[in-house]
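TA notes, week 10

Several of you asked for a full example with nothing omitted. So below is the full record: structure tokens for the whole chain, then the designed sequence directly under it. When grading your own attempts, check the secondary structure regions first.
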């Protein structure tokens, strides 16, 4: 005991006898903690401002993208119903079925529904749980773009690129929406990042770190296919080009590595296609949008070459309906405000499509500057070695931009303005790379002059875009012109003001990003519903991108459906009423003919058997309006039980399937009066839905409820 006491006494006297040593130790410990924080905020070799600025940008992006999602409605009701079904049935989640009883799938592959459906299973199905994963994908895409651009062009270029992506209106809109585009874009940016890492790995042999990163890029591209099918492959030429030009090793090594990445693409995308084809057709839902219950046909035709080349046979369409009426020019005096189909200014295929109509206001604010940056960057790097990283970045993002832009510009069928979202990462990266490369050479008059031209082009183009909505913030376009002129002037004299160089650069960046930022904030403030939302302020001519139309809203019908105990509470021709009622009641409904009402599911014999087995409660048939058009044949999805803006005369919020107003495909000769998204015209042709409707009308009693014929199939 005395020994223990002695040791304790010695320890106490030792610790207390040298107070200065204790203070020194405390100071040293505090210094180490401060050093750790400093290293965390500023890793070795990085500027002190880089990590705080990156974190600030990502936090700001998260706040903007997540803000108000709980009251954002159901977005695209067609996909929202599929997400809800996935929370009720694992098979529905696997196949992205429109209803939990797995009668038919949506017209896209299921990857995006997997993410939103799993979120709904964890947090409960509601607007927030459905949209929050989309918003977080946007934040992740911004972070990956910053990382990819930074590796080859420096931290300033990465931050500019990330900011440009975050504030482009179409990106902010679609990262707050439930279309599959958000997941597709995240996967494509991740694939580009892996490609950058593969080239940096400098593997001289086939089996190397470089090959591993390329295989990772291939896996991500394949998953992109499972999000939006062949649209994801538009960026492949740009990624392959940079590997061939700037990759390490000889030609044989580079080609072999690309081949391995191609195998990864096929395996990553093909496993699900094989699963669908091998699964007994009678035990899985019908593949919506196809004419032969085939995922392969859906991918190659309707969601692939059929769109690009204008194939008239895809997507379950039949050329039996009358042609879509030609828009009345008197109703669209201002061509920049025309919407719908290819009749709208900016929807016609051609070289100027990306600069026309609402497509331009969705994404093209920085496009002129990006094209200037690409040309200038390639000129500056023309004599550098094959593996130069700055030129490699220009090839990667330039190839992405030009190939995707060419396809979208000349796409012949079913085009929507939000497709331009795929162009945004490349446009943003080129802005970051080109601007920083020119800024680093600002002592040369040509570099300063090019920066000044970029500033003037951005200000002038922003003025032109804002002039299309002159009633919205009329002061903004004139302010932008003044800012761009001042920015161009100070850029020209920047070398004479070295003490203000940073302020000049920040001011020029502010002037360039102001217009898309304000437009994006206005976009985020709106509620977007339907399958073809549009960014920016609402427009009186067509209701902007926030309107909502269609769907069964009669509470008596909803109550009738809620009380049904059959396998499918009701059936309706097309997906619009089905989506609306599923979202409002939580019941399973059968969409006869899939989205458009023209898919061969179910057949008349199958439907008759369902009725005989008492598996369907009612058939809903919407009457035509006095104009002769189907009352439900509109672009727009229901927003049952969620807030939405009132409908307007020319709303452009299309249904989940990529069709034009009335469900029509204007270049295929299929008209807006066919039973595309409503049952009113089902008897206008010999489709399966027409046969089913005729059979039900001939054999079952009907009751009128709110302009809808309700046939009781279990009288």
């Amino acid at each position: 005991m005395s020994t223990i006491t002695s040791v304790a006494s010695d320890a106490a006297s030792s610790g207390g006898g040298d107070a200065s040593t204790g203070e020194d130790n405390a100071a040293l410990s505090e210094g180490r903690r401060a050093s750790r924080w400093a290293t965390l905020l500023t890793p070795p070799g990085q500027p002190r401002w880089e990590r705080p600025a990156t974190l600030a940008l990502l936090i700001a992006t998260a706040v903007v993208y997540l803000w108000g999602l709980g009251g954002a409605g159901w977005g695209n009701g067609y996909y929202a119903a599929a997400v809800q079904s996935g929370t009720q049935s694992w098979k529905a989640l696997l196949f992205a079925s429109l209803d939990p009883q797995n009668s038919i799938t949506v017209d896209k592959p299921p990857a995006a529904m997997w993410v939103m459906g799993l979120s709904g299973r964890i947090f409960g199905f509601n607007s927030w749980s459905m949209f929050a994963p989309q918003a977080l994908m946007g934040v992740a895409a911004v972070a990956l773009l910053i990382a990819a651009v930074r590796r080859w062009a420096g931290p300033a270029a990465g931050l500019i690129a990330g900011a440009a992506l975050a504030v482009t209106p179409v990106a902010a809109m679609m990262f707050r929406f439930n279309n599959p585009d958000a997941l597709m874009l995240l996967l494509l940016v991740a694939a580009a990042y892996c490609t950058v890492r593969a080239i940096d790995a400098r593997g001289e042999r086939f089996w190397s770190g470089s090959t591993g990163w390329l295989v990772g890029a291939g896996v991500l591209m394949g998953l992109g296919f499972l999000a939006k099918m062949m649209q994801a492959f538009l960026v492949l030429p740009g990624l392959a080009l940079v590997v061939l030009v700037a990759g390490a090793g000889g030609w044989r090594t580079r080609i072999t590595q690309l081949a391995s990445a191609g195998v990864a693409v096929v395996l990553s995308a093909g496993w699900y296609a094989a699963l669908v084809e091998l699964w007994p057709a009678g035990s899985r839902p019908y593949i919506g949008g196809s004419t032969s219950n085939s995922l392969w046909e859906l991918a190659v035709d309707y969601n692939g070459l059929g769109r690009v080349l204008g194939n008239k046979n895809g997507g379950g369409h039949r050329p039996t309906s009358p042609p879509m009426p030609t828009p009345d020019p008197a109703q669209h005096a201002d061509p920049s405000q025309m919407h719908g189909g290819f009749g709208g200014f900016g929807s016609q295929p051609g070289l100027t499509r990306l600069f026309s109509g609402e497509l331009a206001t969705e994404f093209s604010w920085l496009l002129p500057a990006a094209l200037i940056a690409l040309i200038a960057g390639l000129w500056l790097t023309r004599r550098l070695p094959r593996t130069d990283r700055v030129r490699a970045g220009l090839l990667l993002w330039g190839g992405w931009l030009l190939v995707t832009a060419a396809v979208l510009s000349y796409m012949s069928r079913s085009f929507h303005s939000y497709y331009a979202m795929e162009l945004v990462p490349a446009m943003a990266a080129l802005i970051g790379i080109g601007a920083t490369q020119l800024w680093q050479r600002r002592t040369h008059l040509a570099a300063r002059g090019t920066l000044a031209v970029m500033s003037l082009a951005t200000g002038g183009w922003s003025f032109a875009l804002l002039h299309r909505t002159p009633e919205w913030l009329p002061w903004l376009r004139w302010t932008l012109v003044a800012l761009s002129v001042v920015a161009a002037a100070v850029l020209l004299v920047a070398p004479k003001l070295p003490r203000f160089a940073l302020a000049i650069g920040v001011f020029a960046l502010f002037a360039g990003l102001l217009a898309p930022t304000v437009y994006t904030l206005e976009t985020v403030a709106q509620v977007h519903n339907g399958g073809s939302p549009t960014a920016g302020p609402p427009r009186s001519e067509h209701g902007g991108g926030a309107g909502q139309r269609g769907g069964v809203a009669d509470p008596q019908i909803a109550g009738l459906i809620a009380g049904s105990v059959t396998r499918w509470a009701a059936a309706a021709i097309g997906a619009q009423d089905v989506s609306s009622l599923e979202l409002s009641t939580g019941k399973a409904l059968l969409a006869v003919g899939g989205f458009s009402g023209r898919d061969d599911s179910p057949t008349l014999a199958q439907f008759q058997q369902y009725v005989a087995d008492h598996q369907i409660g009612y058939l809903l048939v919407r009457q035509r309006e006095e104009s002769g058009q189907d009352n439900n044949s509109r672009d727009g999805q229901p927003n049952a039980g969620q807030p939405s803006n009132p409908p307007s005369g020319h709303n452009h919020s299309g249904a989940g399937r990529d069709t034009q107003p009335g469900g029509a495909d204007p270049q295929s000769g299929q008209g807006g009066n066919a039973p595309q998204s409503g049952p009113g015209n089902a008897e206008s042709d010999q489709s399966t839905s027409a046969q089913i409707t005729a059979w039900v009308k001939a054999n079952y009693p009907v009751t009128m409820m709110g302009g809808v014929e309700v046939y009781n199939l279990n009288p």
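Residues 555-659+673-712 form one domain. Use that as a sanity check on your answer.
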